[in-house]
């Protein structure tokens, strides 16, 4: 009888959950349920194999169906705790691009201005010889690699080992610099350790979700559907804090719009209210927090040759409280366009000790000329209230790429990073040298070029050779119009590894045909510190080759074979086992490969056979060792930092000549530069081209009609796009929005290459433009 009742309760609970998720996800398009995914499957026997999704940093688990040596179907993995069987439209249709007619299947070498089909081994010989020759003539810092948050963990690891350990240059950076570097810098400056302390299970516990400049309904739709599920099941609230009205806004309980750049001021005003109303968790702050301020006169990352050192200066709570007097809700309301009432509303949510709150953000906060500061300020709110490192309480930075965490941040494919730690730290360099079996002195102690500066160096002629892997910088870089001529010039030899032709491969001297996702084995690391493994499922066409193996082959040809003793059949396993040595211990232990092969993913730190879901909380984290409830062990004294960070205006604001803000971003149908999703017929049909979104009153004042071609012009370049009025999104008056997925409408020719001077991440979210009929 007891068993029968228990099973019945479980059944009812499961049905209620499924009903809630269905109701939640149908509030916006883009999510497919398990029954939808089962429709239209090919007949006959299908072999299903687990993998993470190829696209965003959510890290949804998928099952790839293969039949007769071909990938024929995709569905969500019901065993994955990330997506619980759900998929967005991109994830569900992902395999449809790999058989595209213009797939790169063989190496192409430019000879006399024409691309010539070349055997892959011959092409790799050319790459290795050119790299060696360039180093001999111009020095080791004349060569560079630019990789990706889409690179697998083994791919990023061997790129780092080749450049920093073998050649001895830090000329390695990645496109994660363009999207997540401010999150990295924010975590490190506040906590001394990178990546979120919580996990997606926070969604099941939080009473409020506050999204900071993040259109989750389109950018992270599966997570947003999980939030909507909690809204429907138990009344959790979603607060959208953004610069324009989006699908996330309409599905939220409240939408609050702010003027671009003023999120800094609003965050400080929230802290002011928390202190004023006595909502500070005094015991937590006294035990676990310090207060600091850094230098503020540091420029905007433009080419003003500005040098600074952001040395922290300790202050006390009273000094911090006094600083916040300039950020009363009434003062901030005047220039943020957020009412004092709304600021107080947000503060009351965070300040209520009986409400659990998760803050989510992505590019809106990170692609910011004060992106590091903005991350620090949201941490301040959670630290002041003690709402951190607990189920349902915490700040959570989402990622845009499938392994921006696992590869860029953990493996360390930034110029300043190593697989553990940073190049500036002697202890970290010695550890890398020991594991890599290279002389310690070979690894340079100073970073060289971050992404934007790397392409500036190509333009100046300082870099003579660059190899890009799994990325498309001539669509994704800010101010791209500057870098295209630099990469076309004869003084720079360009190698591009990719799956499809792109505007970047158009300027390459050698194009290498890369294996796609399921045509190789690999590992990704997602936003919640979850490492996921998959096995090769199908053969790629022609001479397509995994990026890791191409790097290894070039290293061998350059004379570094003893440092790369991996076998072609097992190199993924061999590399991962070597990489795990960097992270042994309770603070960042990685799960063994045999565990990852069985599971749909494992969260690190993996200690004593168990994932650590909430870091820095002694109840859940075995690395805590100070005898207190919380231990922020990334910092020497075990305390997190509450930073005094002021509001500063953007480097470029609208004026009489350029009267509009330009904001750029993404849409649910397409992913980043669209090189994959635009080759998926159903997604291309749903969103065939980019557009420029107007507020209806601005469009009326300018006499602009929907669909009419409009020229958007900045001080750097221009772009012609069709107008979009009263469709998907609604910018505020005086602002236009353009998605950047369309290589035929290069809006990044228009954007500003200013960046956060701490994180070096560019600000794609705001610059001044004028608009006119084309």
TrEMBL record:
| Gene Ontology MF annotations | 4 iron, 4 sulfur cluster binding; electron transfer activity; iron ion binding; molybdenum ion binding; molybdopterin cofactor binding; nitrate reductase (cytochrome) activity
GO cellular component assignments: extracellular region; membrane; nitrate reductase complex
The signal sequence is 1-34
Major localisation: secreted
Keyword 4Fe-4S in the entry? The reply is yes
**For this protein, what is the EC number?**
1.9.6.1
Binding annotation for substrate: 740
| Keyword set, alphabetical order | 4Fe-4S, Electron transport, Iron, Iron-sulfur, Metal-binding, Molybdenum, Nitrate assimilation, Oxidoreductase, Periplasm, Signal, Transport
Show the Gene3D superfamilies listed in the entry.
2.40.40.20, 3.30.200.210, 3.40.50.740, Dimethylsulfoxide Reductase, domain 2 (3.40.228.10)
The record, for CDD domains, names:
MopB_CT_Nitrate-R-NapA-like, MopB_Nitrate-R-NapA-like
InterPro entries reported in the protein's UniProt record: Asp_de-COase-like_dom_sf, CT_Nitrate-R-NapA-like, MoPterin_dinucl-bd_dom, Mopterin_OxRdtase, Mopterin_OxRdtase_4Fe-4S_dom, MopterinOxRdtase_cofactor_BS, Periplasm_NO3_reductase_lsu, Prok_molybdopt-oxidoreductase
Recount the PTM note. Answer: Predicted to be exported by the Tat system. The position of the signal peptide cleavage has not been experimentally proven.
Give the note describing cofactor binding and stoichiometry: Binds 1 [4Fe-4S] cluster. Binds 1 molybdenum-bis(molybdopterin guanine dinucleotide) (Mo-bis-MGD) cofactor per subunit.
Which biological process, per GO, is one annotated for this protein? nitrate assimilation
Reaction(s) catalysed (UniProt annotation): 2 Fe(II)-[cytochrome] + nitrate + 2 H(+) = 2 Fe(III)-[cytochrome] + nitrite + H2O
Binding-site positions, Mo-bis(molybdopterin guanine dinucleotide): 90, 150, 175, 179, 261-263, 363, 367, 472, 497-498, 520, 547, 664-673, 748, 765
What does the record give as cofactor?
Answer: [4Fe-4S] cluster; Mo-bis(molybdopterin guanine dinucleotide)
Instruction: Give one Pfam hit by family name.
Output: Molybdop_Fe4S4
Specify the 4Fe-4S Mo/W bis-MGD-type domain's residue ranges.
46-102
Where is this chain's protein located in or outside the cell?
Answer: Secreted
Q: Which residues take part in binding [4Fe-4S] cluster?
A: 53, 56, 60, 88
The name under which this protein is listed is Nitrate reductase
Species in which this protein is naturally found: Aquimarina atlantica
Q: What is the lineage of its organism?
A: Bacteria, Pseudomonadati, Bacteroidota, Flavobacteriia, Flavobacteriales
């Amino acid at each position: 009888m007891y068993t029968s009742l228990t099973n019945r309760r479980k059944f009812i609970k499961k049905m209620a959950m499924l009903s809630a998720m269905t109701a939640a996800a149908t509030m916006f398009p883009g999510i497919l349920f398990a029954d939808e995914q089962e429709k239209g499957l090919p007949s006959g026997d299908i072999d299903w194999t687990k993998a993470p999704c190829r696209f965003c940093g959510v890290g949804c688990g998928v099952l790839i169906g293969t039949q007769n040596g071909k990938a024929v179907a995709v569905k969500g993995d019901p065993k994955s705790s990330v997506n619980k069987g759900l998929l967005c439209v991109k994830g569900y249709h992902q395999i449809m691009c790999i058989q595209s007619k213009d797939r790169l299947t063989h190496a192409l070498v430019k000879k006399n201005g024409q691309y010539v089909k070349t055997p892959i081994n011959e092409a790799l010989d050319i790459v290795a010889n050119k790299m060696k020759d360039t180093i001999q003539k111009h020095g080791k810092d004349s060569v560079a690699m630019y990789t990706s948050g889409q690179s697998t963990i083994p791919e990023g690891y061997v790129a780092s080992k080749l450049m920093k350990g073998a050649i001895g240059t830090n000329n390695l950076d990645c496109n994660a610099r363009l999207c997540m570097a401010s999150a990295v810098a924010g975590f490190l400056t506040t906590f001394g350790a990178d990546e979120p302390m919580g996990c997606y299970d926070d969604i099941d516990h939080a009473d409020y979700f506050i999204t900071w400049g993040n259109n989750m309904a389109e950018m992270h739709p599966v997570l947003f559907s999980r939030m909507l599920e909690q809204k429907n099941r138990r009344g959790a609230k979603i607060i959208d804090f953004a610069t324009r009205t989006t699908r996330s806004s309409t599905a939220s309980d409240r939408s609050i719009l702010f003027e671009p750049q003023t999120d800094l001021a609003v965050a400080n005003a929230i802290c002011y209210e928390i202190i004023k109303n006595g909502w500070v968790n005094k015991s937590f702050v006294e035990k676990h927090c310090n207060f600091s301020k850094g230098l503020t006169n540091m420029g905007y990352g433009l080419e003003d040759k500005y040098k600074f050192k952001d040395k922290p200066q300790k202050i006390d709570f009273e000094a911090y409280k006094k600083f916040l007097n300039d950020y009363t809700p009434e003062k901030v309301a005047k220039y943020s366009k957020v009412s004092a009432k709304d600021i107080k509303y947000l503060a009351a949510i965070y300040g209520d000790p009986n409400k659990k709150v998760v803050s989510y953000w992505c590019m809106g906060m990170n692609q910011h000329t004060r992106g590091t500061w903005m991350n620090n300020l949201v941490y301040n709110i959670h630290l002041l209230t003690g709402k951190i490192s607990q189920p349902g309480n915490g700040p959570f930075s989402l990622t845009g790429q499938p392994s921006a965490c696992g590869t860029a941040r953990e493996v360390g494919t930034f110029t300043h990073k190593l697989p553990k730690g940073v190049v500036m730290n002697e202890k970290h360099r010695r550890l890398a040298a020991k594991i890599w079996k290279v002389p310690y002195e070979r690894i340079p102690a100073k970073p060289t070029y971050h992404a934007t500066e790397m392409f500036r160096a190509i333009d100046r002629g300082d870099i003579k050779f660059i190899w890009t892997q799994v990325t498309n910088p001539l669509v994704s870089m800010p101010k791209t119009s500057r870098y295209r001529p630099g990469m076309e010039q004869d003084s720079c030899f360009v190698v591009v590894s990719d799956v499809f032709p792109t505007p970047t491969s158009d300027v390459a001297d050698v194009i290498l045909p890369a294996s796609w996702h399921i045509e190789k084995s690999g590992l990704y690391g997602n936003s919640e510190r979850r490492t996921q493994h998959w096995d090769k499922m199908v053969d790629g066409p022609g001479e397509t080759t995994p990026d890791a193996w191409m790097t290894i082959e070039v290293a061998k040809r350059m004379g570094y074979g003893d440092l790369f003793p991996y076998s072609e059949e097992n190199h993924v396993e061999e590399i991962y086992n070597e990489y795990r040595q960097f992270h042994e211990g309770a603070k960042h232990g990685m799960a063994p490969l045999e565990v990852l092969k069985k599971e749909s993913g494992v969260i690190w730190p993996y200690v004593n056979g168990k994932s650590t879901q909430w870091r820095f909380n002694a109840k859940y984290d075995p690395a805590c060792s100070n005898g207190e409830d919380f231990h922020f062990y990334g910092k020497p004294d075990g305390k997190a930092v509450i930073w005094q960070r002021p509001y500063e205006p953007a480097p470029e604001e609208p004026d009489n000549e350029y009267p509009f803000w330009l904001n750029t971003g993404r849409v649910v149908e397409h992913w980043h530069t669209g090189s994959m999703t635009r080759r998926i017929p159903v997604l291309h049909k749903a969103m065939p081209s980019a557009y420029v979104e107007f507020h209806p009153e601005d469009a009326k004042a300018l006499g602009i009609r929907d669909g009419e071609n409009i020229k958007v012009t900045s001080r750097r370049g221009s772009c012609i796009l069709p107008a979009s009025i009263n469709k998907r999104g609604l910018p505020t008056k005086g602002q236009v929005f353009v998605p950047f997925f369309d290589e035929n409408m290069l809006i990044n020719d228009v954007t500003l290459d200013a960046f956060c001077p701490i994180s070096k991440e560019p600000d794609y979210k705001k610059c001044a433009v004028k608009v006119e009929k084309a």
